[in-house]
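Sat 14:20. Reprocessing the chain from the morning session after the first attempt stalled halfway. Input below, unchanged.
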Amino acid sequence: MKKLWNTLPLIIMLIVSSCSKYSNEPSSSISGTSASDETFLGDDSSDFVENETWDSTIHIVWSGTEVTITGNADGVSVTNSNGYVTINSTSKYIEYAVSGSGSGQLSIYSSYKFKLSLEGLALSCTDGPAINNQCSKTCYVVLGGTNTLSDGSTYVSSSEDRKAAFFSEGQICFSGSGSLEITGNYKHALASDDYIRMCSGTGTINLIAKVSDGLHTNDGVIINDGTLTINAVGEGIQCDTSSVVITGGSIDITSTTDKGILAYANINISGGNIYIKSKYKCIKTQSNLSISGGSITAIATGSSSSSGTAEGIEAKGAISISGGNIYAQASNDAINSGGNMSITGGYVMAYSTGNDGLDANGNMYIQGGLVYAICAGGAEVALDANTEGGYKLYVQGGTIVAIGSLEKGASLSQNCYSVSSWNKNTWYALTVVSNVFAFKTPSSSGSTLVVSCASTLSLASGVTPSGTAIFNGMGYFPASVSGGSDVSLSSYSSGDSGMGGNPGGGGPGGRR
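Finished this time. Tokens:
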């Protein structure tokens, strides 16, 4: 495996050295977490095919089960048996250009990295992967034209690890402006026992997984560019041991019975447009989550049961949000952290129809950004920190609208006001100095509406908004509004806070 990852502190998630991961000491100048992150550096030039030189090109063209092979190179053997093409190579700098339409399989055994140019290939296999790459080095896949791959619902017995319609032992680096559709009928659609990267200039990849995951890796997923669409029965994206890094591109994931993105290490999102609709958790990491940019819509459609918990976004470690436009909706907690949660920037909406809006099992720090949180009402709260564990909600900055109150005993360092009653399914306008945030109230929630910011504010109800739509259509910012009537605000203190801290699937404050 080529080493891609480097362990170093993630700057936006640093705290002073005296604080522990679940410190209950406040600080207005830190994010409130001490998460270390195994972060992809993003500057590995060897991932980019344009930095390589290829000495020889071998063309492989399918027509049914007949295959035409042209070109040769020392140390390279290419054979065909009824559409099943096998490449054995001990040579460097070889390109394989594949095209045509047929049935069979492409199996690659190479001692060195290679370039695989898909130039209008339609290949289906009835008893194994369409592409079976057993080389542990980099496979540069360059997309040209329209390409389709599919595997069989059953595989012939083999000692090799083969678990996807396009399977690779080594890392796969995609580029090229073409398209690729992969249908996985046996297990996953696309899988690597190393990492998969969509580099700058990648075209369109469509993954259909009828049994398990759309994209499955062992050692990481990096998405810098391209359009990725996944329809999966299992996870949309799963990474077993390393991080998921998203810096750009357009990602649309539908998981009918499971999660959208699952990583057992950190997830870092700094760009891209991400839309996820899954039965259970849309984004889940067993470690830490950092969001510093991009647009994220995460909608968990299921109900929590013994099979899974329906949360929009969950990190078992810390969550740090410093930028981006985020909308999370779920029947359980909309956004949940097992450790501290810090919001220092960006636009964040957390909408729960059955539990808390934002739920931290350590401290929660709101220090910047625009936050709109909705809880289910009753004993749930819009912003919930784990007070039973000795932690607290710290409101230290930002602009906040919370429907359903705040965690009891919250530390409020800026102006907070409340409205004892509010109208359902109604547009409100919160004006802070000259900035207007228009938001639509839900059909049901808690009885208290809390607003907070560092400056003078006013609130109006029954307005007609226009402007830039955010939060899946439930907000506008910046907004222009017309009509409406002023709302009377009362001073709100921590003693007025809601109950919070109810079990949310396994422990105090929603801790799992």
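Confidence is low (pLDDT under 50) at residues 3-41, 499-512.
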